[in-house]
Amino acid sequence: MDIFTAIHSRRSIRKFTEAPVDADTVKRLLAAAMAAPSAGNAQPWRFVVVDDRAMLDKVPSYSQYAGMAAQAPLGILVCADLSAEKYPGYWVQDCSAAIQNLLLAVQGLGLGAVWTGIYPMEDRVAAFRREFSLPEQVMPLGFIVIGHPAQELKPQDRYDESKIHHNGW
User: Fold this and answer.
1) Boundaries of each Nitroreductase domain copy (predicted)?
2) At 112, is the secondary structure helix, strand, or coil?
3) Confidence tier at 45 by pLDDT (50, 70, 90)
4) pLDDT tier for residue 158 given thresholds of 50, 70 and 90
5) pTM (2 decimals)?
6) Which CATH number covers residue 93?
């Protein structure tokens, strides 16, 4: 799939089959995520791969918009190691770029995914820290639920000329 097809056809998938995502595919997805740019090339991202059924089933109890994790075969918790930052505060952009690469790789491989937010919601941050035993310097940004799609969403043209300004507002 070419990059423009992946970008324009990527949709948030919330229904999955029971088919597992194999380890080689997970490695390819993580390699794509780690190819993202980062401030000062610090690469502060850290990933927790979650394929344990009991852990996935529990996610909706502390992350209300991640209910689909209970039906998915895989989740990837994207975090930042704040001690790895060269330019403090840029971790959100760095990890968001990694997540976007991850989502596009998922689409390119014919899988489905949805980005569920954690940071800056303090209750979610605390819950993910607790449930995944994250060290103090590691900040969770998002939980990406991944699997083989059990729904088909059509691409949408979201181009909107009214949101574009040239050479100033």
Assistant:
1) 7-56, 66-148
2) strand
3) very high
4) very high
5) 0.97
6) 3.40.109.10
